[in-house]
């Protein structure tokens, strides 16, 4: 076993992670991003992770997609801002809602 793989396995046995997906008008990309992140986290952390989708006041249907993903994946929680609060608002919401040892942020318009 490679050293890096061993370290990852060892860390994932002891810690949990919250991945915050920051979304504003991301109906085109959100589902694929959640699917990709879930697939990677499942390999590293088993069930010791959560994915928080923070919809920052989207107007393009992102809210509905986030809600559907929450129903599809038990590890996903969808949180909605009624209006766009910007990056600071997303960070405040994320830090108040995340439940795990570590937290990281990922934009919904990116690819793994």
Automatic annotation (TrEMBL):
Pfam family, one: Glycos_transf_2
Membrane-crossing residue ranges in chain numbering: none
InterPro entries (UniProt xref): Glyco_trans_2-like, Glycosyltransferase_2, Nucleotide-diphossugar_trans
Domain spans labelled Glycosyltransferase 2-like: 18-111
Protein's UniProt name: Glycosyltransferase 2-like domain-containing protein
């Amino acid at each position: 076993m490679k050293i890096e793989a061993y370290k990852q396995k060892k860390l994932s046995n002891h810690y949990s992670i919250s991945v915050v997906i920051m979304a504003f008008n991301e109906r085109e990309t959100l589902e694929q991003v959640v699917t990709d992140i879930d697939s990677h986290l499942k390999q590293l952390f088993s069930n010791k992770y959560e994915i928080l989708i923070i919809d920052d006041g989207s107007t393009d249907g992102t809210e509905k997609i986030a809600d559907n993903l929450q129903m599809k994946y038990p590890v996903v929680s969808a949180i909605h801002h009624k209006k766009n609060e910007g990056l600071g608002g997303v960070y405040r919401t994320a830090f108040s809602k995340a439940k795990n040892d570590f937290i990281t942020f990922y934009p919904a318009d990116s690819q793994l």
